């Protein structure tokens, strides 16, 4: 039976959705630790709040921690032109 999956370069997620004719079954198992990591991927903590960061991979292989340009997801260095 086919199962819905999402693949990215870093990991594959199995959503637990099985396709049967006319019926969809969902899994109610949620990995809150993974959900938190994904939510935090483009943010950094500033005091008691969070601030968005560029997050693009730098030449050292680490995520860029600069603030994104207004109306863009990336900083000026990593902006897609």
Description:
The chain is mainly beta and 81 residues long. It is built from 1 helix and 5 strands. The protein has one helix spanning 32-40; strands at 3-7, 12-20, 23-25, 43-46, 49-52. The strands form 2 sheets. It has a 3-stranded antiparallel sheet, with no helix packed on it. β2 and β3 (23-25) form a beta hairpin. The protein is elongated and about 50 Å long. The mean pLDDT is 80.
Itemize the secondary structure elements and their pairings.
Elements: E1 3-7, E2 12-20, E3 23-25, H1 32-40, E4 43-46, E5 49-52
Antiparallel strand pairs: 1-2, 2-3, 4-5
Feature tags:
single chain; 81 residues; mainly beta; three-stranded antiparallel beta sheet; two-stranded antiparallel sheet
Major sheet summary line = 3 strands, antiparallel
CA-atom Rg in angstroms: 17 Å
The strand count comes to: 5
What integer is the average pLDDT?
80
Helix-residue proportion: 10-25%
Shape: elongated
Residue stretches low in confidence (pLDDT < 50, at least 5 long) are none
Describe the strand arrangement of the main beta sheet, using strand numbers. Answer: 1-2-3
Strand residues, percent: 25-35%
Order of helices and strands: EEEHEE
Count every helix, treating DSSP H or I runs of 4 or more residues as helices. 1
Structural class call reads: mainly beta
Distance between the termini: 43 Å
Would you kindly provide a brief summary of this structure?
With 81 residues, this protein is mostly beta strands. Helices cover 11% and strands 31% of the residues. The strands form 2 sheets. Strands 1-2-3 form a 3-stranded antiparallel sheet, with no helix packed on it. Strands 4-5 form a two-stranded antiparallel sheet.
